Amino acid sequence: MSERHPGSDDWHPWGPAQEPRREPTWATPSETRPYQPISGSWSEQPRPPQGADDWPWSEPGAVGGGAQPPGPPQQEPRRRGPGWGAFVGGLVAVGLLAGTTGGVVGGFLTDGSPSGSTSRTAPVPTPGAGSTTRPEGSIANIAATALPSVVTLRVGGGATGSGWVYDDAGHVVTNNHVVESAGDDEIVVVLANGEQVTGRVVGQDASYDLAVVEVTGAELSPLPIGRSAQVVVGDQVIAVGAPLGLDSTVTTGIVSALDRPVTPGAADDQSFINAIQTDAAINPGNSGGPLLDMGGAVIGVNTAIARVPGSGLGGGQSGNIGVGFAIPSDQVATTVEQLIETGTAEHPVIGVYLDSGYQGEGVRVADEGPDGAPAVNPGGPAEAAGLRAGDVIVAFEGQPVTEGGELVVKIRSRRVGDTVTLTVRRDGGEKDVRMVLQGSD
């Protein structure tokens, strides 16, 4: 690995150029956007649905309040955006805000007859059958310990999401998209015991889709924070939250994949998440709830699910199909501390504008930025490393990158001050360059 800048005299093709990749079939960029990891600073424009290769996103949103008339969830997905190249198949990632549950619950509590009546006879409990003791580390014991620390958040308009207690000071972590409509209004926080207290947003960040709500007047017990960097594919996990408004719901599954670049959101409100993928049942209303390991520690914050296009109930969101996504706890811990301290979060950047019309392999640095600005920001990390307009970034830390959103996700999964290595192609050759990430609001 060379640490010399590509702008120096020894920059020359030292490896053969690779064959151009097949034109991608997902969310083709249509215009140049600034590559600044700040809220709404860069995005690809979603293209019209083209069948099996489209992967729009949105969150597993909020659930309507109990006063709503019966009916299936009707909340439209809040945000949609491009997917990533690794996905092949017609799925849509949706957010986790949900609608009213009256009709859904009614259906599940009956035989499914049109009248809603049932002829089933309730079983008679057998005294002494079963055991009330559970082995240490069982799902039942983990759930019993975690449930008092998981809350339901009710925001104006009847929307409902989930959250969990972060510290003894009354800070509750949730998704930004759960509370973004609250503004300066108070939020109703429903504790596991049914008690209702008020909360207010003290910090939020759309880019990481995280928010902190401060709760007063209640004794809260925080959940321990685990290390998502130690999670491996196949680990058992537990999701806790309020799917479809059903408080204190516990589901289980495994870690299906790691480092999934998930970019839900519209161009002006897009999130960039290096997500944990899980098959634990996550549904509308789970947004902001914790994903726990088998030690009961938070390893992620549930934030998005995938669905088949056109499968939403009544044109709205669909439910779980075994493809859910969580923000890794290492990212959560870093961001939440900043939100508590300052109300905002800092985002790592390299300081370039990307050519979103480029369709070749990797990600191309634009010829110029908006209004004729330099494509490589003066004084930024990329300039210090010698990057130029027209350079093509083909890998980040040795991992190939195929589109701009994926590169942004990888950068934002790091911290300001981290040193990273990019593989850059120029004039038919490739070279590794190192740079120190700077911070941007």
Automatic annotation (TrEMBL):
InterPro entries for this protein: Chloro_Bact_Ser_Proteases (IPR051201), PDZ (IPR001478), PDZ_sf (IPR036034), Peptidase_S1_PA (IPR009003), Peptidase_S1C (IPR001940)
A Pfam family annotated for this UniProt entry: Trypsin_2
A single GO BP: proteolysis
Any one Gene Ontology molecular-function term assigned to this protein's record: serine-type endopeptidase activity
Spans annotated as Disordered: 1-84, 110-136
Alphabetic keyword roster: Hydrolase, Membrane, Protease, Transmembrane, Transmembrane helix
Biased composition (Basic and acidic residues): 1-12
Organism encoding this protein: Phycicoccus avicenniae
Polar residues bias spans: 27-44, 112-121
Taxonomy, superkingdom: Bacteria
Protein name as catalogued: Trypsin-like peptidase domain-containing protein
Segments forming domain PDZ: 351-428
TM ranges: 84-109
